[in-house]
Design brief:
Elements (H helix, E strand, L loop, with lengths): L24 H7 L11 E5 L6 E6 L3 H20 L2 H17 L1 H12 L3 H26 L2 E4 L6 E9 L2 E5 L5 H6 L2 H6 L3 E5 L5 H13 L7 E3 L4 H11 L2 E5 L2 H14 L2 E5 L4 E5 L5 H13 L9 E7 L3 H13 L19 H16 L3 E4 L15 E4 L6 H4 L6 E7 L2 H9 L3 E2 L1 E5 L3 H10 L4 E4 L4 H5 L8 E2 L2 E2 L6 H4 L2 E9 L12 H15 L6
Parallel strand pairs: 5-6, 5-8, 6-7, 8-9, 10-11, 10-16, 11-14, 13-14, 16-17
Antiparallel strand pairs: 1-2, 3-4, 4-20, 9-19, 12-13, 15-18
Helix pairs in contact: 2-9, 3-5, 3-8, 4-5, 4-8, 9-10, 11-12
The structure holds nicotinamide-adenine-dinucleotide.
The site of nicotinamide-adenine-dinucleotide has 25 residues, from helix 9 and helix 10.
Length: 534
Amino acid sequence: MTAQAPSRPLVTSAPEPGAWPALPDSLVAPLLRSAVVGPSPATVRTVAPFTGDHAATLPISTPDDVAHAFAMARRAQRAWSDLPVKQRARVLLRFHDLVLEQQASILDIAQTETGKARRDASEELADCALTSRYYGIAGPRMLADERVQGVFPVLTQTRLVHHPKGVVGIISPWNYPISLAVTDALPALLAGNGVVLRPDLQTTVTALGLVSLLLEAGLPEGLLNVVIGDGPDLGPHVVEHSDYVMFTGSTRVGRIIAQQCGERLIGCSLELGGKNAVIIREDADLERSAEITERASFANAGQLCIGTERILVHESVVEAFVPLLVARLEALRLVPKVGWGAGMGSLISAKQLEKVSAHVDDAVAKGALVLTGGRPLPEVGPFYYAPTLLRGVTPEMALCREETFGPVASIYTFRTDDEAVAMANDTEYGLNGAVLTRDVRAGAAMARRIMTGTVNVNEAYGAAWGSLGAPMGGMKASGLGRRHGEEGLIKYTEPQTISVQRLIGFGAPFGRTDEQWAGLMTTAFRSLKTLRVK
Ligand code: NAD
């Protein structure tokens, strides 16, 4: 690795904040250092959601480029995995500092590509920094060789060794591009792997910017390569060359990836969709519940996998709660520009707007009541949709069970804790849940009965997501495997058991018969029964 030059601004030609019509080629070109594209690639123009105008022009990778990206990563990976893990960890810790230093540029780019409010982009930037710090500090201990009790105490010495998988393919979505494009790569790299990243096409520049900071932090060239293109075109080629796949996206595509990985007998981690519920108990602080629920359902304009689309309220407090939430939603500022000040941003695309509108229109046509919102806001921006709260949603309406992934939540009522838990669990998904209550013990007891990978008490998603030492992921149709914690790192390794046998072996010793040896073993097993096993 080379000595590091002082950090330069990631964006050197930034227009005034608030006046970004597009990401100019002069900004994109230097960030393409980690991209693998041919000499005269086809190009594609992405759309800036705030305005509907041009966001960036990007070169497109071909299947051959994907193969080349893997070959380069495979070459670089050998030397990288030979480095002491603490040296690899230093790259993550330096990256942490660079992300914080360069946050203004990263937020500008991410807002331009996604149309999200800066407060949402800022939340994911914090996640990116915290994850690099967490694995940079805690990761080396998790990867260290482990002594495990051997079959014969003292006579069998056994060690567990963690080898990197090789080259990990990461396919990441558009909704949290600062966080999801790199935070899953960080533990893969720390474990000694190379990475080929296929970020969502719409948010490729954000990913390239972050990878350029990783290079500046000391990551060797060629170890993490970005391929650019549409998921259905490039995704199968990424899976074809990977030794392990990390995918974040819908359950529908997760199933396709799982099939491809199954064919190749490689592992995968799938972070998929959700239809999450927040339960507001009778004793909950209603003002606080309205604040938490506003963030839970409308952060990132509802395009948040662990966000809440179902608000379950105790029937005795629903009439008091609803006006508090409606007032908050109607006060949300919608400001279509790069910079601070907006409470909620735009949807990412015309496709997403179409899906959200279709869900709400279907519900309204079948009798749902709109408490606030319920329509697109073209007067604000081409893909904006009003923060929407519905009541009277029934199972024949699509948004009752399907993930809407927009700024739309529905109120349901319950009478007992048991009923609330049953309603929360009445979904094919199992990603995230929440209980709001003044009785924390009762809330924690209910949490155990909610079948989701994470449950928050008196928060909706940040408490569990941000607890980086604990695994995060989905039960049921919400996924396979976990990110965060030890599981989020060790999944990128191939465990190997090395046992050294001393003095006696497994055959009958000293001229004893097999029967005598079996008898001796039986006596030994009985005396060893109380020995602690690790
Ligand atoms: P999607 O599954 O359609 O797309 C996700 C990504 O996969 C995109 O970048 C897309 O280009 C790519 N893709 C599409 N087809 C592919 C294929 N055949 N092979 C490989 N890649 C392919 O999902 P979306 O609607 O764009 O994203 C929103 C979904 O992602 C929601 O369901 C949301 O809940 C989920 N999500 C989950 C998490 C999580 O951590 N559980 C986080 C963010 C988003």
